[in-house]
Amino acid sequence: MSATTAPAASGAPFAPSPELAASIDAVRADVAKLHAQLTRYGLVVWTGGNISGRVPGADLFVIKPSGVDYDDLAAENMILCDLDGAVIPGTPGSDRSPSSDTAAHAYVYRNMPDVGGVVHTHSPYAVAWAARGESIPCVTTAMADEFGGEVPIGPFAIIGDDSIGRGIVETLKGHRSRAVLMKNHGPFTIGKNARDAVKAAVMVEDVARTVFLTRQLGEPQPIPAEAIDSLFNRYQNVYGQDPTGSLN
Ligand SMILES: O=C(CO)[C@@H](O)[C@H](O)COP(=O)(O)O
């Protein structure tokens, strides 16, 4: 257990250190603001979709409330949860129900310690591949850059319990892709933080669309495995500015 000890389970009032409180506030602000990217890129309609971000150094994450208009999402109504997905009582936003996918996000954070952000959308082209139950083959350099290969299909899973989380982890552990298409549902993406997972959500929709378009013209041409490796390594390690910069 790290800086916090499962306050939701212990019943003790949640009393973070000033440093942890500042860190939670920063994640709240970040997660709330990032939801605007989902509407900006046309990845969601109405109140669908959700973003969460892990609180660095604590067994906590922040996720959006369920079924609230995107225009009303703000730092103070984001919901703080422990890694079992339980809402931390008495914290801002805790009077509302968290996202219906909270258990899935929590499962990912518990089982993939390097993941700092999780995103789910119903972006239309990615959902079309998910409804087909088909992985997106790696046939463009942009896909090799971003995902290092195909975007895999995950199992069909029921919403609300651990099933979606288990499907995400089983599919993505040991895989280069930061996106999985959950069968008959849609894309879930992971990243080193919430912004990185949002980027993967934007990119998976873009590749789902371009490979769909390719299919209308004929059979997509594969990229040799060595070229995929080389493109992935260059993009992940050399592209853009310093890794701590803002262009990656
Ligand atoms: O598809 C699902 C459920 O998996 C969600 O994306 C809902 O469409 C939005 O749920 P909330 O995050 O608002 O509960």
TrEMBL record:
Entry's family note: Belongs to the aldolase class II family. AraD/FucA subfamily.
The entry's protein name is L-ribulose-5-phosphate 4-epimerase
| SMART domains registered for this protein in UniProt | Aldolase_II
| Reaction it catalyzes | L-ribulose 5-phosphate = D-xylulose 5-phosphate
Required co-factor? Zn(2+)
- Record-linked InterPro entries: Aldolase_class_II_sugar_metab (IPR050197), Aldolase_II/adducin_N (IPR001303), Aldolase_II/adducin_N_sf (IPR036409)
What are the leading ranks of the lineage?
A: Bacteria, Bacillati, Actinomycetota, Actinomycetes, Micrococcales
Annotated source species: Herbiconiux daphne
Q: What is its EC number?
A: 5.1.3.4
List, for all copies, the residue spans of the domain called Class II aldolase/adducin N-terminal.
29-212
Q: Which residues form a coiled coil?
A: none
> Membrane-spanning residues where?
none
Q: Which Gene3D superfamilies match?
A: Class II aldolase/adducin N-terminal domain
What's the superkingdom here? Bacteria
Assigned keywords, A-Z? Metal-binding, Zinc
